[in-house]
Amino acid sequence: MKKIIKFMIIILFVYLLISKSYLYTATISRDTPNDNIKELKLENNKLEKIFNYMFPSEDKAIYVDKFRNTDSFAETPIPKILNDGIEIPFDIIYYNPEYLRPIYDYKWRDLFFRNWLYLPQKISEARHKLFIFPQGASGNFDFTASLGFNEKVHIDFLNYANLLVYDFDVHNVKKIDNEILLIGKPSRNEVQVVAIHINDILSKDKSTDDFLFRLTTEGGYEIDYLYSSYGNPQYGKKEITKPDSISIPNKENNLEQLKEENKKLKEKLSKYIPMENKNLYADKCTNGDNNIPDLEYMLDKGESINLTFNYRSKDYNRPLYHPYWKKNYTKGVVFLPKKICENLYNIFKIPSDPKKQAKLFNSLAFFENYNDIDEDKIGFLVYNFNIEKGVVYDNNIIFLGTPSRTGAQMVSFSREMLTRSSYSISLSSPDFNEVGFIGIEF
Fold first, then answer.
1. Is residue 39 a part of any domain in this protein?
2. Do residue 323 and residue 407 come from a single domain?
3. pLDDT-above-90 percentage for the chain
4. Three-state SS sequence of the chain
5. What is d(CA 118, CA 96) in angstroms, rounded to the nearest whole number?
């Protein structure tokens, strides 16, 4: 019994010794001013680097995305591929008809050094509906994360070319030589992953080749395109020149100075990106539902609009980056979710108020000379679409025309034609597919 009591006393003594040691350790591990200074320096350094990773190293306008530039590619007319092309088997390995594209993913901020916040890249991504998965785990990690595409899809990189398609329902695939058409119908909300076996597109004597992929309607109107190599594991998600690695000088500031600097940096960064750990999606961008109206019927039955063209250029290129945005960040023109929203759409209602109109044009970096819109008219700015006519039917405004890779038009018409409080505006191709839309309220 005495041995048991002695053993219990020893156990108790050891326990108290450990507890005391723990309490002492916990006490001395509290942050000291030097620890706080170190942590704040690291955080401030990170915040400053985020700014540098968002913008090009050269402060000049950027217009061309090299992986969407097909100048060196002798393109075959789409009607010829539709008529004479070879049908290619394909699989839809992922489909979500309710998918919403992210306009902000907070992981972009946390892993900024992977260039997921790089503004020209984010704008280029937003404007396009067609992408190809890279070959290899590292490239695929950056590809899906930069797009905020977090769906679970099993991808066979070795045997298939895998295409990510937004807002388009692929019905058929045809090819002539190295030009591949994904034929189908545009939609407002969906995503597909289309898998094409590499043996069906790549010549047997080649391990890699360049391809032009195009989304087209059944009537032969191009919705989007992608110039890419297959067989090369580097897909080129960093299409635009990346910013150089930035070294932030070490500042010898005291704790209060670092706190003040931290506060200012966070206030400045909040003008560019949200500070909350929350993802945002495209339902925040525009009014309107997911249902495309019967464009053919409405164009036939609707009241014709007498259009005035206040600006028209077939060669206009929307900038992927403009120095105005960085210089005027306090005006909200570079807030990333707003910037992505702008570039998901190709039609904008022009405000009648001159200040609001200037704010819109500055945000779009639209600095062209145009004829003023009359006070009794409503105006719209349209990109990458050549308007031929317009009609009003109930609470729908439909512009008929042809989609294009470049171009801008500003059109206006009498406000007297609009008697409803809200309208859905659609851009219709000649084969009655919707290639752009917005919802507006008065």
1. no
2. yes
3. 70
4. CHHHHHHHHHHHHHHHHHHHHHHHHHHHCCCCHHHHHHHHHHHHHHHHHHHHHHCCCCCCCECCCHHHCCCCCCCCCHHHHHHHCEECCCEEEEEECCCCCEEECHHHHHCHHHCCCCHHHHHHHHHCCEEECCCCHHHHHHHHHHHCCCCCCCCCCCCEEEEEEEEEEEEEEEEECCEEEEEEEEEEEEEEEEEEEHHHCCCCCCCCEEEEEEEEECCCCEEEEEEEEECCCCCCCCCCCCCCCCCCCCCCCCHHHHHHHHHHHHHHHCCCCCCCCCCEEHHHCCCCCCCCCCHHHHHHHCEECCCEEEEEECCCCCCCECHHHHHCHHHCCCCHHHHHHHHHCCEEEECCCHHHHHHHHHHHCCCCCCCCCCCCEEEEEEEEEEEEEEEEECCEEEEEEEEEEEEEEEEEEEHHHCCCCEEEEEEECCCCCEEEEEEEEC
5. 27
Where in the sequence is the domain holding 431, given as residue range(s)?
285-441
- pLDDT one-digit tens code per residue, 254-306: 888 889 999 999 999 999 999 999 999 999 887 677 789 999 999 999 999 99
- The whole-number pLDDT of residue 36 equals 83
In this structure, are 78 and 223 located in the same domain? Answer: yes
307 and 215, same domain (yes or no): no
Largest alpha-carbon pair distance within the chain? 108
Residue 261 lies in a domain: no
Residue 75 has pLDDT above 50, yes or no: yes
Based on the fold, state whether residues 306 and 209 are members of the same structural domain: no
Q: Which of 185, 202, 230 is the last residue of a domain?
A: 230
Show which of 190, 213, 230 is a domain's final residue. Answer: 230
Q: Are residues 215 and 298 in the same domain?
A: no
* 308 inside domain: yes
Let me know if residue 38 belongs to a domain. Answer: no
Confidence of residue 315 (pLDDT cuts 50, 70, 90): very high
The string of pLDDT tens digits covering residues 201-229 is 988 777 788 899 999 999 999 999 998 87
Lowest mean pLDDT among 183-197, 222-236, 369-383: 222-236
Give the number of domains in the chain: 2
pLDDT tens, position by position, 384-441: 999 999 999 999 999 999 999 999 999 999 999 999 999 999 999 999 999 999 999 8
Closest by Cα among 321, 302, 416, 312 to 365: 321
Distance CA 285, CA 345 (A): 9
